[in-house]
Amino acid sequence: MKPENPHKINEAIRDLKVRLLLEGKEPIVVTTIEARAIAQAEELDLVMIAEKADPPVCKIIDYKKFLYDQKKKQKEIASKAMKVVIKEIRFGPQTDNHDYEFKLKHARKFLEDGAKLKSFVFFRGRSIIYKEQGELLLLRLAQDVSDLGKVEALPHLEGKRMFILIAPIKKK
Asked: Do residues 10 and 39 lie in contact, with contact meaning Cβ atoms separated by under 8 Å?
């Protein structure tokens, strides 16, 4: 099944009169039959641009090329849109210095690449009694990457995990 055209074209336009936009000329109000005749003479399509206007606004264009250009613009807009990537780093409440430095290196790389960083300390069993150590660890991480990212959410506890969210600083 073929998707329906988003615009009314040629014979699908049923209004008696239309406002016709012509290249480099003032818009004119003509009957739909006259507008269709002008479009056929130029071997182009009569396309309704604004259906709600009184009278509806039409333009004489190559419809296939018009759709192609619209699709191209949409792709360009989508490619320019920033995709938010969130990378996670997991710590234990008693992570030693070497492991911390190793994970810090990864955190710095993630922020340099433009990804958000979600870092958390996971408390297992009775290790929840060390939540102050977990908070200090996350704050230390935030301090160590402060040149590359800014803290979006301070450390907070959710169940058995303590989270911190760090966003990259925009480069100019």
From this structure: yes
Predicted confidence (pLDDT) per residue in 133-155, tens digit: 888 899 999 999 999 889 988 88
Amino acid residing at 162: M
> CB of 118 within 8 A of CB of 163?
yes
Give φ, ψ of 8 to 5 degrees. Answer: -85, 135
Q: Which fold has domain 10-78?
A: Ubiquitin-like (UB roll) (3.10.20)
- Is pTM beyond 0.70? Reply is no
Sign of CA dihedral 98, 99, 101, 105: positive
Fold topology of 86-168: Translation Initiation Factor IF3 (3.30.110)
Mean pLDDT of the chain: 86
